[in-house]
Design goal:
- The complex is a heterodimer.
- Chain A is 35% helix and 20% strand.
- Chain A is of the alpha/beta class.
- Chain A starts with 27 loop residues before the first strand and ends with a strand.
- Chain B has 3 domains: 159 residues, Beta-Lactamase, CATH 3.30.450; 95 residues, Signal transduction histidine kinase, dimerisation/phosphotransfer (DHp) domain (Helix Hairpins, Orthogonal Bundle), CATH 1.10.287.130; 156 residues, Heat Shock Protein 90 (2-Layer Sandwich), CATH 3.30.565.
- Helix content of chain B is 55%, strand content 16%.
- In chain B, helix 4 packs antiparallel against helix 5.
- Chain B is rod-shaped and about 155 Å long.
- The chains are: A alpha/beta, B alpha+beta.
Amino acid sequence: MQMNPQQSDGKTETRFTDGAADAMVPHMKILVIEDDLEAAAYMTKAFREAGIVVDHASDGESGLFMGSENAYDVMVVDRMLPRRDGISVISELRKRGVNTPVLILSALGQVDDRVTGLRAGGDDYLPKPYAFSELLARVEVLGRRKGAPEQEMVYRVGDLELDRLSHEVRRGGKEILLQPREFRLLEYLMKNAGQVVTRTMLLENVWDYHFDPQTNVIDVHVSRLRSKIEKDFDKPLLKTIRGAGYMIKDEA
Amino acid sequence: MKPSMSRLRLVMRSTTVRLSALYIMLFALCAAFLVVYVTAMSERLLAQQVREALLQETSEVRGSYDRGGVNLLLRTMERRARQPGANLYVIASPTGEMLAGNVASVEPGVLDREGWTRMPFRYEPFTETGPPRPHVATANVFFLDNGLRVMIGRDLGEPGRFRGIVRRALMVALAIMGLGALIIWFGIGRNALRRIDRMSAASTKIIAGDLSQRLPVGVSGDEFDRLSESLNSMLERIEKLNEGLRQVSDNIAHDLKTPLTRLRNKAADALAEDRGEVRRAALEGIIAESDQLIRTFNALLMISRVEAGSIAAEMTSVDLSAISADSAELYEPVAEEAGLSLTTEIEPGLAVHGNRELIGQAIFNLLDNAIKYAAGSDGAAPIRVILSKQADGLHLSVADSGPGIPADKRKEVTKRFVRLDESRSKPGTGLGLSLVEAVMELHGGRLELSATHGEDAPQPGLTITMVFPFQTL
């Protein structure tokens, strides 16, 4: 069971308009290394509203120090930092054996810059300007990674089962036929069950394109998938989180 | 004094003056050479003529001596000496004393040797008034069998006279050339300077902001005119670019102002709203608007990055067939939802050297557009994704059967923020095709727009083709 047992609030649709989201990610602790104090203050506040404990470092050296001394679940690192470049902070952390997942924030653009960041040891990459919902979703997914059911062969959400080996999907014992892409979509959603995944994350992980889908492409695929897994069942599993993305979750 | 000095310096700095000075110097050298050469040549010719004449006379004089002895010789010589413009005649004793002749004296030694005098020698002619002035002459000397010496020569005038003539000729030539140079400078140089001044004046106005100004072009079609013409076409291009930039700024202002205004209004609504549900809806609307703004900025940034070419480092071999199929698969449900079908005609195994992300995004943009504009059109002919190998490269086309774009507007649509739909009722940033074009430029390819069903069809449709040229790799 990958579901977080503490998730009790079923009505939550948007993450930051009410404090109910707090309960969803208990005790996650992250480090934000960002020199833009205004952006950092906004981020800190927004993360705290989402129930995440935030430490903040405003330059590369202190970020490196805090990152090596304390145990964090996730680090959010801006690329351009005073005293030590973000990329260098990450590679130094990795050299010191710190394997905390790192999300790189960058104003430098997309595509090419992403590769540099990931090569240095970053785990995810988000270009500025970004929507906070996107950042939050990615941080949550990264923070859960340690316990991610990477080795599990069968993902379960409620009565929905996905067998990663035989590529079979069943709900309530009834087999559901999915296209290969739909299978991967569902697989990614179930791997991150109980967490918001954004459209961009889906495009990245299911289609392997790393940019912002401009229109409703992803929505159409998700709603097709939804109709397949929910058509003959009463209980909805796949929810649309407005302003953010999607989440698969058992409401029980 | 000072202004005239600076004016002189200014004049000296002008190309015309420097060129004129150089020309004058070259001309003077040529003239000097010419004068010296011509003089030498004419002197030689003259000397030869003199020799021939003197030889002729010598033989005549010898003849008279042979026929009538010394008496006839003397008479002949006397007669000849009295003729106007006569030559020089001297009879001297075997010791060299002058016995008779029409000169007062000759340079010593001249009469001591038979034959031609080597160099012109000095002598003094008889004069009626004043002291005798030395002249130079050339002469033939011969000895008679009785020991008398006879000299027949020709006056070459006063020494230095010839050189004086040459010098004067040279001076006159130089003066004429100097005058000519001045005239040339006044005529051409000042004219050129004035034209350059006019060009500078026009440039100053242009710099001041009046881009509609043009440099004056004359009728002669010379270098200045050609320069003015190319500068003018440059200005035209700049003006056009500037116009485009202004258009883009206007469009940016419109495209960013409208959502910002909506954003503000929604925020104000949310603030005034007490009912939780309505307030939430307003706030969600605000987030949606913000996301759209972020998208626009991201797209703008992306285009600049691609145009700057800084992504070139991430080029690999890209399976175009796979990307095309993937994109079609991704968009197929979207098309279906819009009441359209999507078919593919993809030649397998075609690859290019490029950036997968960018090519992918370009195809997405084309599919996005095709679905957006063909939706709701009659007949619902399918949107086709076609990839094929042609003579000039790989052609990847997205063809729709929508309203299409009139041929004269096709150039417009790749510009940033240009949307033919004036009301901007369809969603979009107006940046999609700009990015596609930038991506094609990065890959050394081009974008072709045409009508799917012929220009005159009632529903011509639009086919956008990305042409990837074969790479020399």
